[in-house]
Amino acid sequence: MSQEFDVVVIGAGPGGYVAAIRAAQLGKSVACIEYNAYADPKGEVRLGGTCLNVGCIPSKALLQSSELFDQAQHSFVMHGISVDAPRMDVGVMMKRKNNIVAQLTTGIRGLFKKNKVTLLSGLGSFAGRENERWKIAIARNGETEHVLAEHVIVATGSRARHLPDMPVDNSVICDNEGALSFDAVPKRLGVIGAGVIGLELGSVWKRLGAEVTILEAAPEFLAAADPAVTKEAWKTFTAKQKLDIRLGAKIGKVERVGDGVRIEYELKDEPQVLECDRLIVSVGRVPNTEGLNAEHVGLKIGERGFIEVDAQGRTNLPKVWAVGDVVPGPMLAHKGMEEGVMVAECIAGQHGHVNHDTVPWVIYTHPEIAWVGRTESQLKADGVAYKTGQIPFAANGRALGQGDTTGFVRMYACASTDRILGVHVIGNNASELIAEAVVAMEFGACSEDIARICHAHPTLSEVMHEAALACDKRPLHF
Ligand code: FAD
Ligand code: NAI
Fold this sequence. Notes:
alpha/beta, FAD/NAD(P)-binding domain, 3 domains, seven-stranded mixed sheet, five-stranded parallel sheet, binds flavin-adenine dinucleotide, binds 1,4-dihydronicotinamide adenine dinucleotide
């Protein structure tokens, strides 16, 4: 007889593993199915999904290593520290990254054990209904077993979108998986797509010495970010950091030539050629729904390939839920985790909820870029009357002490109610600073609320404080 669970989760990325843990905490019997071994040396299934294995965590490890290398070359000197020509051992950097990944993925196994979540290794798919339960097939090494579930949570995530006629081999032509595992610094690195991955990984290899050229189809740079931030970022990345970003590029033929790649493209209708030693293709991601046997059970998938859900993660099928990258919305690990908690709580009869309006965005370049809420373009498009407070880090004592004064905090508040509508940070530690703005917006705060809160001195958070004061045209230190 098939094993039976209250909840079966398909996929052990941030959306899935968090949903599994939360459902177990709420007293449900839970199993989580995962099939990806990624690069596990023992061939064991690896938990944590894209985020832990080939996404957030390894990219941030490499960003940190390359940032320190860059500082040793360019920033130490202002503190009076001289270092003779620092050298980067890419092997050591990768080993450190791999160890962090292994530590965290193993940690999730521990969390499953602690919370009594049963791990089922294999490819999960819908096999139909049996005894008013969902019958789920788990295929592994040519064999298939079945389990029964009252509730199913689909958390199968996403994978890199590939372009036609551009064979990704993850050695020379790479998506995120290969780009996080280069064995050496390429002399010339090409990147297609100046989105989040293109900028983060382009920065890693640029800091380590590669000549980086990024070809972007859109005529605008970072269209999702606030226009003031985009302008500052463009100036810093291109003029200061010498990232060669070419907007409005129309990619043509891409071919392997010798040990490298030759890319034909058009810029303003003029034919161009880029030759490079390695190419990263980072043109967005697509949801993973193939292999679920969705059509067999009638699971509704929308036009763009995402599973359709309501505001609480319910699909069109009874007691089938979906969370994370496989459903519409920003493809962010924390968004998936919150949805995992929401769905588990709804299954347990609670009032699960995610406020998608306060999901923060962070781009881990240097300077970092982070925001929550609406951009100025969105406020204009929505016809909202707003006031603005913008304060640069250049006026902040802590930023000066750290020797890193690039960027600013920009806050928008409603012109009539003063309620905060959006906060945008470009600068050192923007990823941490944005948390204050998220809390404020979740609590429906006004700019005056932040203006009246005592912020420790000297800290970068004082710039958030001053930006709030500036909304009322009364900054104290600027
Ligand atoms: P995934 O993490 O993709 O996990 C889905 C899991 O389901 C996978 O392990 C997959 O193997 C498994 N699976 C799929 N189909 C089946 C099946 N049929 N049976 C069993 N298992 C299955 N987000 C951030 O918030 N911050 C960042 O800094 C950040 N950096 C990133 C950097 C890179 C290079 C990339 C590529 C992504 C980054 N992201 C970041 C995005 C983040 O990784 C994703 O939003 C997040 O992993 C989505 O979680 P998920 O659980 O929905 O899906
Ligand atoms: P993206 O959507 O951020 O950027 C893709 C870029 O490629 C866009 O600028 C797009 O205009 C461009 N593009 C699309 N087709 C093209 C073509 N044919 N030629 C040239 N350019 C083209 O996607 P990306 O960078 O692949 O990242 C995927 C997702 O992963 C992100 O959207 C984000 O959700 C997540 N992520 C999050 C990170 C973070 O939170 N810090 C870091 C990295 C990824």
